[in-house]
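Same chain as my last thread, 717 residues:
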Amino acid sequence: MSPQSQPYDAPTDLEGFCLQILMQGNLDAKLASPTTHDGEPLPDTPSGPIRHIDRPVRDPGIEMRSGGDALPAPGELRELKARQLCLSRFAHHELQAVEYFAWALLRWPEAPAELRRGLVAALVDEQRHCRLYLDRLAELGGRFDSNDHSDYFWRQAPAIGESDSGIRAFLSAMGLTLEQANLDFTLTYRDAFATVGDDESAAICQRVHNDEIAHVALAARWLGRLSRDEATESKTEGPGTCSLENYLETVPFPLGPARAKGRRFEVTPRRRAGLPEDLIEHVRHARVQERITAPIELLPNLGAEEEDPSSLGRAYRDQAPVRTAAHLWSLLFPRHARLHPPASAKGEQIPPISQASLWPNDLGPPPSEPIFDFLGASDVAYAWLTSEAAVSQATEQFHRPLAGAPHELTLALHDKAFAIESANLLGTQPRGLENLLTVLGPEDFADEEALIAHLSERLSNWPAWTGQRFTLKPRQGSSGRGRVGGTGVEALDRVRGALDRLARRGGAVLEPWLDRRSDYSVSLFVPPTDESDAPIRILGSLESWCSASGVYRGHFGEIDSRGRVFSGDRDDEASRADAAGIATRARELGYTGPCGVDGFRYVQPMPDGDEVERSRSVLEFNARTTMGLVAIGLAKRALPRVRKRLAIQPGDRHGFALTYRAADDREWRRRIYHEVGNDAVIVDLARASSEGDPCASLVFARDPDSIRRARSAAFRC
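reply #2:
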């Protein structure tokens, strides 16, 4: 039952006028002019409390009902009853808009005066639209029947009114969603009315359409103005113009881009309204989304295994390549994910960065779904690596658990000692290497002289083919950072300065320096322990590309029409099986979540002077997200955009590479096309920034070998 109308005298100010619209149930009160008896605009002096009105009062005959509000199809307007029904529902849409604008003026009295004047002008337009439709409906002998009146607008009011975005949520919901959609509907039905000879109704649709352009422009202009701050100003398309990011961050569910359009999509009126091109294209391709309960919180703590347990994301703050890697990682998640950079060196908190603001245009609209199904939950937080600090932040700041296994287990499995132990147990350790690997714990570093003596003895007993070339790698680390090495026992004296650092990193592994020919990795997902029947998922395998000094440069792979990713290595199948073996062992110990297994191919000299190529398929077990996983996910993201250009057919495999570089220069692109060929497709993922963050791109080609050949010339690895 609708609330009862309240008696009101003629309003003396704008607040009273809005209350009249919402609390008086009859049409005359709702469509009255916001002017004095002398024809002057009612003064706008909001002084009272914020008004929370859930639903407007309606007299019998114009009551609302719950449920759908489907319009007759344009092809049905040959029937008079269909045209009458259309006009009745159009009139009710406009009546709801009148009430909505009044509601917003009461809900946000603190809004800028210029914006409030714009809302009043829009309200008056909606009143006029309602009268036009009602008058035409009467001319055709129809009734404004309450059976046709859906409460769709008002079902959205609580989400809008309670949004943290304030009046920006209203601008996004009303102006950039409901009224933007009407840009399409008005033209669709204008043409439909005209087709059946109802030129009068068609002219009304055109008139309403013209006003809606101005309303959308008002919302876009003010959403941009109200969203401008240090974090977003540089992203706006121009003074007072909203951005796609502004819209996506403020529009409340279930309203959103998929509901901001009709079946026929009109670009020209959207451009006339000043909407940016990326927002237009996002709306064009949007689909109805499922409910999003909360943002997905991302903690970019890359390199956490190398830091103090209490530290969180120092590498993100201090290392430019790490920032780019973290930004790429965020692209695997839905658009409502956001990165939380660590505090500055001075302890200042940095605002979170929305995934939508990082989203590259080359990948199309920001997605509503994750690229992997295990990355889409909003009731947990995600960290690159599960660490003590990340668990604390997720609990204290976001009040939710961290996805994945306990941090103690994660670090234990991430330890290089676990990979060595597992390779020995699984029988994957290459022949001739199994007895040459020495695991050193922190306790072994307590007596420096005893440690040096122990290492000297080990080196002296190595076979001749090693040349006593050695490396000491920290047990907790990534990308080869922190390792030291040399040749011969005498070189041990030169590594003394690194011993304390290695001890703090969980100890070290002593192993021969091998002549590596290629590096590869396998990315996997270990299902939760309560899904004991769910198999370990191999997400893909890749070749890793590094500089001579071990600096990460990117990944190479082959992708087929179904989005499956392979390294292309001749032992790919075997390395995937070995990776699944160690992941299974991690699962038995309680691990769950994404992980990666690194391996490489190397050449071992033989006593007769020949060389034997061997594979070390289990070098490291990365109990965390990896850049390999990022590369696979991004290739899957890009596949729909490049499928046609590459003419991908079922069964075909095409090459791709994820590459890092210092600058986005034309020379790099020239080398790509020279080395890869004119069929190369470049998908830019991240631009070089003033902070020195490197560029990142995906490069696709029909021929995988062409990308391999370009490794040195084009990718510098």
